[in-house]
Amino acid sequence: MDWSIQEIARLAGTTSRTLRHYDDIGLLKPTRVASNGYRHYDDAALVRLQRILLLRELGLGLPQVAEVIEREKSEASALETHLALLRQEQERLARQIASVENTINTLNEGGTLMAENMFDGFDHTQYKDEVEERWGKKAYADSDRWWRGMTDAERADWQKLVSDLGRDWIAAAESGIDPASDEAQALARRHVEWLTGVPGTPAAAPGGDVKGYVIGLGEMYVADPRFGANYGGTQGAEFVRDALRVYADANL
């Protein structure tokens, strides 16, 4: 049994255009092409598409998606890894939902808010030890104080800023532009402005080595896949690193 491209697009919540693009770049080939020119996909193609969409949701760019799929040939094993990540996220979101529901109920009933119950699942301290090791306890304390001092609206605006920046970096890297181009350098400027806006970082400290920090951070994006995933994987992280270096050499 197989399915037409229109059926798969509808079931997967994507578009026929996207599926055709995946075919053009060799990421997802149709199982067969009918006499009317329509692409069709079988079970194996559907499993591959599921993996592609999962990796895209993790923030990987298309080149990195291809690398991961080709590296991990065992589809069942790869999907088990995806499932574990999804369950972790499901648990975190369930905790956030319960926390917010509890706050709403308490407010509606005129009860007393319990701070220890309000922020379950909102963990911004997961990199605490790593930040303190890299940049010192004061760096973490300053940034933590700044984050806790924000209103909910300010946190939402900040998270949107970071999300938009990551999305724009990935799009720029996938477009194939030069890291030294005006478009890439405009992104680098936004990136540096973002970094200098976080209290506690070397980029925000008066008299700090902003240039060294920006260049070093770019190298870290490439070396550490946790950070590289924010920019579409290794190739995206390399693009960000190169653009930041050009910007730092010219402006910092």
In short:
This protein has 252 residues and is mainly alpha-helical. The protein has helices at 5-12, 16-24, 43-57, 62-71, 75-109, 115-118, 128-135, 137-148, 152-175, 182-196, 210-223, 225-228, 234-251; strands at 3-4, 32-33, 39-41.
Structural description of this entry:
There is one protein chain. This protein is mainly α and 252 residues long. The chain has three domains: 3-71, Multidrug-efflux Transporter Regulator, Chain: A, Domain 2 (Orthogonal Bundle); 72-123; 124-251, no CATH class. Helix content is 70%, strand content 3%. The chain has a three-stranded antiparallel beta sheet. The longest helix is centred in the middle third of the chain and has 35 residues, at 75-109. Residues 123-127 have low confidence and may be disordered.
Produce the secondary structure layout:
Blueprint: E1 3-4, H1 5-12, H2 16-24, E2 32-33, E3 39-41, H3 43-57, H4 62-71, H5 75-109, H6 115-118, H7 128-135, H8 137-148, H9 152-175, H10 182-196, H11 210-223, H12 225-228, H13 234-251
Antiparallel strand pairs: 1-3, 2-3
Strand percentage lies at: under 5%
Query: Tell me about the biggest sheet?
Result: 3 strands, antiparallel
Q: pLDDT under 50 segments (min length 5)?
A: 123-127
Mean pLDDT: 78
- Category from helices, strands and their pairing: mainly alpha
Number of strands: 3
Order of neighbouring strands in the sheet with most strands: 1-3-2
